[in-house]
């Protein structure tokens, strides 16, 4: 499994607007793609600034390509998201998931 990581900053109001955009627009798109395995939107409040981090999970590079296009390192940031963010990464990073506790929990035999 591959984790795709992207970061942005926003005001508190912008972070809330991005959360709504992520929930109502990004997640439905991701869920419709074969090979998408999950997503997280993380938030860190710092004084008058909010740091956002998006972590999406994928089965393969091919699955990511269905979402991001041929250049896997280019961030997908829709105009609606750009409008509410102060800054955002134009590229993403990818990491190989080496331990997945959720998968292990799903695969574990039921006790009883």
Write the layout of secondary structure elements.
Elements: E1 2-10, H1 12-31, E2 36-46, E3 49-58, H2 61-68, H3 79-84, E4 87-88, E5 93-96, H4 101-107
Antiparallel strand pairs: 1-3, 1-4, 1-5, 2-3
In short:
It is built from four helices and five strands. With 112 residues, the protein is an alpha+beta fold. It is globular, with a radius of gyration of 15 Å.
Q: How many DSSP-defined strands?
A: 5
Model regions low in confidence, pLDDT < 50 over at least 5 residues: none
Structural class: alpha+beta
Please write the string of helix (H) and strand (E) elements: EHEEHHEEH
Mean of residue pLDDT? Answer: 92
Overall tally of structural domains: 1
Instruction: State Rg.
Output: 15 Å
% residues in beta strands: 25-35%
Largest sheet report: 5 strands, antiparallel
CATH class: Alpha Beta
What gap, in angstroms, lies between the N and C termini?
30 Å
CATH architectural grouping: 2-Layer Sandwich
Shape: globular
Helix content: 25-40%
The CATH topology corresponds to: Alpha-Beta Plaits
Please give the count of helices.
Answer: 4
Q: What are the salient characteristics of this protein?
A:
single chain; 112 residues; alpha+beta; Alpha-Beta Plaits; five-stranded antiparallel β-sheet; 4 helices; 37% helix; 32% strand; ABM domain-containing protein; Dimeric_a/b-barrel; ABM_dom
């Amino acid at each position: 499994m591959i984790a795709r990581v992207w970061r942005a900053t926003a005001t508190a109001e912008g972070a809330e607007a991005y959360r709504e955009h992520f929930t109502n627009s990004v997640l439905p798109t991701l869920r419709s793609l074969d090979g998408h395995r999950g997503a997280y939107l993380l938030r860190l409040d710092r004084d008058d600034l909010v740091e956002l981090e998006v972590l999406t999970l994928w089965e393969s590079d091919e699955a990511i390509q269905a979402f991001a296009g041929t250049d896997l390192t280019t961030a997908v940031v829709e105009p609606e998201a750009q409008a509410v963010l102060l800054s955002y990464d134009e590229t993403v990073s990818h990491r190989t998931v080496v331990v997945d506790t959720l998968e292990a929990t799903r695969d574990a035999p039921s006790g009883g």
